[in-house]
Give the backbone structure.
Amino acid sequence: MPHVATERFLTELAAIVGPRGLLTDPTDIAPYAEDWRRLYRGHPPAVVRPATTQEVAEVVRACAAAGVGIVPQGGNTSMVGGAVPAEDGSEIVLALARLNRILEIDPVDMTLTLQAGVTLKAAQEAAAAKGCLLPLSIASEGTAQIGGVLATNAGGNNTIRYGNARDLVLGLEVVLPDGEVWEGLRRLRKDNTGYCLRQLFVGAEGTLGIITAAVLKLAPLPREVEVALCALPSAEAALDLFSRFQAQDPAALQAFEYMSGSGMDLVLAHIPGSALPLVTPADHYVLVELASPRVGAGLRPALEEVLGAALEEGVVLDAAIAASGAQRAAIWKLREEHSEAQKRAGASVKNDVSVPVSRVPALLHRAAEACEALLPGIRIVPFGHLGDGNIHFNLVQPEGMDPAAFLARDQDLMAAVGAVVRDLGGSFSAEHGVGRLKPAMLPGWRGGAELETMRRIKQALDPHGIMNPGKVLP
């Protein structure tokens, strides 16, 4: 692709989006050029900030005509470099933050229609103001925008109850690679009319088109919520506890989050204001959240019943049940700050993997052994969504090791974890996507007819390869 910093092309973009919509000063561009993890830094000659879907379409048409690559960007919270432009100046960043309107909330249809630049947190608050719940919840929800959340098919904490992002999507508006707009903002619960196009774009990481608006499913707002933090003797005990809550009332279980003792230690050491509400530290922890829209649902007695039996049988070593909203938030903070604590502790290698739920303990044991054999002293800090089999098997550099030297081992470490995951029937990308970090892994995991079908879809929709080049497909 050509270098795009030509005066004529930039003037054309400025005419489309106006002076507020085009950034060309390197200082203004800098926040859009680097990913959250600081693994990649691109050099886009411009950041385009359209304010309407029509402006997005016109920018895409201009780029298509010029053969210029487009990197769609929401909150830039990708963990796999999925929203970072190339270093050679051949791509622009198309930031969607100005498309930030809530278009409609319908408490009868239980739908939320909104633009792609609305943050997930703002969408949750808008739904709650109407007595509804947008059940998608992720650690970066204050920054992550709806377009990016859908483009990556974000998972998060409530997947065991409500599914991933794609399970909440009823309709989309998408600007296609030729600048045409697919107007699919339907809010139908049943619509079996041809191919389900919206699911092509959810999870495609902006490689097939740019999501500009969406219709999302809502749920009743919980009226009763109970949260507990549990200390456990083993990963097997964590799985046992999950099974007990599933057997008691699967409809009440909203989140079931695993944390290792090593990961909890990093949070307590690096996150101000964090505190462990348990008497004795442990090697394994679980956060349990029950929720119900019913008044008088009896969640507290139900929680105490399961935990009481588990304590008596040694499945749980200690437990703390939140007695207020502030205590619930404090317990959740211990879980949500894991990524930030690991970042502050040093360089890290992140493995966003999934296995069948029943095989999570095997994953934790076998992957730890493999990584320790490769690099003695490595800090193994897995955490995540045990209830749906998605564990962030993260690795932090040994204390005192040079960060660059540690990151130079990332492929070996990822391969070691991947070998275990593959043997257990899992996936190397559970919810973060493929992005720029992992395309080379795709042929080995999704080769043959599956990868070839992906290539054919890409070729059909984006024959010139201008949509988020270098992401997902190798």
